[in-house]
Amino acid sequence: MYAGLPMLLAALQALVVEYEFILHPPSTINPPNINEREFVQRYGVSGHLLQDLNDLIELRNEIIHPAHVPTGTPDNCPAYLSRIKNLNLLNTTGAPDHDYSLLGQIASHRLFEWAIGVVRSLYGAVITSDPGRAARFQGFLDTFDEPSFKG
Question: What is the pTM for the complete model shown?
């Protein structure tokens, strides 16, 4: 889990780079960074998918930052991740005033399954953004549907 979330977002960024460079020389285009607004605009990411992307980025940041500060909440979940907690994606003791550490809450299979679904949808947004290139990249999206991928 701790390696999986950052790797999913790294794979998405790698797809964007390949998608942009496949038909353009590297010196003529700068692929958008998935952390920036240009990514959202170029590939039409909006609504719930945009919320999911933002939450996934926050979760990734929580995992990769080496120093964790106290969340300041009784349930050890920062306010900016309350949407994820409300979706019942985190591990929990069920006690409103004392829960697992944030990293303990993030170590959830439900959360990882959700993250895979979000990244699959983001792959879809990138791949289908240009019908002329979609067929060339469809295999990347189909990978998510392989039985070996689903386990």
Answer: 0.91
Using one digit for the tens of pLDDT, what is the confidence trace for 43-73? 999 999 999 999 999 999 999 986 666 677 8
Predicted confidence (pLDDT) per residue in 15-34, tens digit: 999 998 876 666 667 889 99
In this structure, the number of other CB atoms found within 10 A of the CB of residue 77 comes to: 21
